[in-house]
Amino acid sequence: MKKTDRIAEFVAQLPTDAEAEFDPRYLGFFHCFNQQQYYEAHDVLEDLWLQGRQDPEQGNYRYFKGLIQVAGAFVHLQKQRLRPWHPKDGKRARPASRLFQLAADNLAGYRPVHMALDVDALCALCLGLKQEIESSGFTLNPWEPEAAPQLELKLQ
After folding, report:
1. Is residue 77 one of the residues assigned to a domain?
2. Three-class SS of residue 11?
3. For 13-144, where are the alpha helices, taking DSSP H only?
4. How many domains does one find in the chain?
5. What is the pTM assigned to this prediction?
6. CATH of the domain at 102
């Protein structure tokens, strides 16, 4: 089964709102992210993002890229939290910090609110976590499963 088919099947199983104005993959990103399924959130939105690669300066290409980078940063922190002793997973703070900065850079052009998301708040979250990680000399992992951030859309 191709990745695109696998993603379509996965998205079809997610809870949906028949009245939603957004692509199910966009909504699926938030569902997965809020369930701490960061890798799946990345995959679901990447499928939508890749559709815009022909003209990256148009539409939501950088917006989706920024959201994917946010999810990727949390993948790094989650893996480090689960296996801090692992030679590779134990050193994921630096790439997480880098992804938080890239995400904030890509999302900045969509401030303050875009597609029902408070982009200002998300950029502040990314830059705050980046600062925490860097000020600790890349030894602190600020992600806690019990206090994981939730990304909420302001749907009407």
Report:
1. yes
2. helix
3. 24-34, 38-49, 61-82, 93-107, 119-135
4. 1
5. 0.88
6. 1.10.3450
